[in-house]
């Protein structure tokens, strides 16, 4: 249960910030965002603020921002259709009621002759079966279907109406939000826990290590080992690792006084190699500028590592059964959570970078696939046919779901069978 809760909290946060990036840039571009959802499937909780419905759905495996013009189903008024119009004080249409018209005593029943709810914003038709009238539709106005209101989106509020640059930034904002989130988390870790520095200073000691037994203390500055001067923590580590089981003479400075301490590294075999260990962690420091620098370094390092791993997967150096899906990530998240909050935060930051990179891959149904079509549009000077693009994304989504099933089955076999 703890693993499941940890996974939901961490993955939910990553999806939230990813979709928040899309939402903020879409709203900035003037796009009508109908829904901001975390999860898929049935709604568990929802509320509406301004134009957008914010929902939490049952399956915590992703999220989405539903933008006007990108809806899978749209409502169209057809000639001969009978609708009810609710008018404001100036005579403009506020609501177009498609059914349950009896709920509204002051409704104007109209048999539609023509309607343009994207550009002209009007409805024409016959009232009382004979009188022809033209009604102007105000902004905002709503369809009412099964007693539920759906805001009408004029063309200038739709995704497709925006410039190529606005659409590109709206899609790109999701992955960028994941990178920004990782950077912020790494900076927070540095501010709260500190960040490692490459200085010749003893960091935290393990309870039963050789360093504590010999009398070393956290904060001791290592001047030399066996007469060889130490300038960095890396040099200290390399010297200790190279002398397993051999007494080492540490020249240290503590509280302004120099002294000598003999430490014998414990011999331990790691991946077939015997190395020396004395039970000391790297020294840590805390500062705002240092935390920002460390956050940038960590974000760059993990970005490079993940990109390298994807490259190995493409070239066949990395096997498919080594990938992990939601089940594997949930299990790993639970194990990391047992190590403490800072390890969980770092794990979440790494997952956020991974989510950002994967979404930038030029594959259908991913953000990178959308960006690829925008690049084609920039070269052609006109967008790709929306139906053709939609079909490509649909096929890509189906293939991604198939891959997800394969990876999930591998996870189940790996961890539970």
UniProtKB/TrEMBL annotation:
Any one annotated GO CC term: membrane
- Annotated transmembrane regions: 6-25, 171-192, 341-361, 390-409
Q: Name one GO molecular function term.
A: metal ion binding
Q: Where in the cell is it found?
A: Membrane
Residues forming the PDZ domain are: 194-241
| Cofactor(s) needed by this chain | Zn(2+)
Q: Which GO terms describe its biological process?
A: proteolysis
Keywords (alphabetical) are: Hydrolase, Membrane, Metal-binding, Metalloprotease, Protease, Transmembrane, Transmembrane helix, Zinc
What PROSITE patterns does its record include? PDZ
SMART domains per the UniProt record, alphabetical: PDZ
Check the record and name the SUPFAM superfamilies matching this protein.
PDZ domain-like
Q: What is its main location?
A: membrane
Q: What is its EC number?
A: 3.4.24.-
Topology in the membrane?
Multi-pass membrane protein
What InterPro entries would the database entry show?
Answer: PDZ, PDZ_6, PDZ_sf, Pept_M50_Zn, Peptidase_M50
Instruction: Report the Gene3D superfamilies cross-referenced here.
Output: 2.30.42.10
Q: Which family does it belong to?
A: Belongs to the peptidase M50B family.
The protein's name in its UniProt record? Zinc metalloprotease
Species of origin: Geobacillus thermoleovorans
The gene from which this protein is expressed is rseP
